[in-house]
Amino acid sequence: MQQARFRGFIPRRYEILLFSFLLSMFMSFLVSGVSTMRTIGISDDLPLTWARNFVSSWVVAFPAVMIVAPVVRRLVKRLLIEEV
């Protein structure tokens, strides 16, 4: 039996936007979670406080990734040695 393959549904022209959206979302979720737990510890307020912190950090992270990612890609290309 052949395994079904997932086929995307978002046009390729949105690749950079989708990359920035997902990267900023995952990173904001993780970083806000770590910083929230370090600040207030594990408590009953943790989920709601984490959610608030995640949203406020993601609002900054998403446009930042849109601006910084192309700069980082160019920097990485300059730092790499061409292999022969």
Overview of the structural elements:
The chain has 84 residues and is an all-alpha fold. The chain has one domain. Helices cover 71% and strands 0% of the residues. The chain contains two helices and no strands. Helix 1 packs across helix 2. The mean pLDDT is 93.
What is the element layout, followed by pairings?
Elements: H1 15-40, H2 46-79
In short:
By secondary structure, this protein is an all-alpha fold. Helices cover 71% and strands 0% of the residues. It has one domain (14-79).
Q: What attributes does this structure have?
A:
single chain; 84 residues; mainly alpha; 2 helices; extended
* Count of all domains: 1
Determine the mean pLDDT: 93
What is the CA–CA distance across the termini? 43 Å
**Poorly predicted ranges (pLDDT <50, ≥5 residues)?**
none
Largest sheet: none
Radius of gyration: 18 Å
Number of helices: 2
Question: Count the strands?
Answer: 0
Assembly state here?
single chain
* Percentage of residues in helical conformation: over 70%
Report the sheet-strand fraction.
Answer: under 5%
Shape: extended
Helix and strand pattern? HH
Q: Pairing-aware structural class of the strands and helices? A: mainly alpha
